[in-house]
Every structure is written in C-alpha cells, then in structure tokens.
Here is the input.
Amino acid sequence: MSRAFVNEDSAAAQASQPVERQISDNPNYVTASGLAQLQAHVAALQAQHSEQTALGERADKQRLADIERDLRYFSQRLQSAQVVMPAISTEKVQIGSWVTFADEHDQQQRVQLVGEDQADAASHLINWASPLGIALLGAEVGDEVNWHRPAGDQMIEILKIEADG
Here is the structure.
C-alpha cells in the first residue's frame, strides 16, 4: 500500500472526530435558571446518546461522536457549575442583574449578566466574563464605565439596575 493512501485514511479518520469544546478558565458561575438549562441540556444529550447507541450498526457515527463530545463538555460544565445567589440588589451590578445603560449617543440597551453557557446576545443575556460583562460588574447607577470592545473602547453610563426575576 502506498504511503499516500495511509496518510489519506488517517486524515479522513481524524476529520470525522469532532473538535473538543474548550473549557473556559473562568469560574463557572451560573444563575439558577442557567443551572436548570445545563441540567436539561445534559439530559437531552443523554437521551440522544441512548437513541443513537440503540441503533447499533445503523447509528450515524458522526452524530454519535458529536453527541459524545457535547456530553463530555456539558457534563463537565454541570459538575463545575457554581450557582450564584439571585441578584436582589439594585445598588450594584452582579451576576443575574438586569442592567440598562446608554452609550455616548444616548442609545439604550438592557441586558442581563449570566453564566457563560447561558449567554445569548439575541436574548440580551450577556456572559459576565465578556468585555461588556466585566465593564458592568460591580457598577452602580450613574457610573460611567469603559467597555473594551474590538471596535474600540466605549464609555457607557449605567441608568438602571434591576433584580433577577
């Protein structure tokens, strides 16, 4: 067998293996709803894994490998989850707080600081360890904070802090 065919087979086998999800170095702080979402996601992945393994030889090998990768990641995230107390203060921004802020052009945004796996910008759920989350965390109403963005730093003013719930 030619060495070229051996290398191609090896490369094809490696290509079918999903790339492992990277675990963040940040503490895995989660809100209570974030923990519930993690638990539900792990349960759903376990069910999908059971369905695929029950198929035996008919199982979609790539799908099974993807499910196993995701199950390893989310199981580890669930084990390392540190549930934060619900944000009840309206004095300082904390994980779970809803924050309304304005930029230099008086454009307002309302976001909630959440855990990394719960973050969803389209739903205004911002990772507490993101540049925006770091800028907001610990701020008080009336504070102007510097948001370090890839497009350049931006000053924002905290207008309102609401408790989680």
About this structure: The domain at 98-162 is CATH 3.10.50.30 (Chitinase A; domain 3).
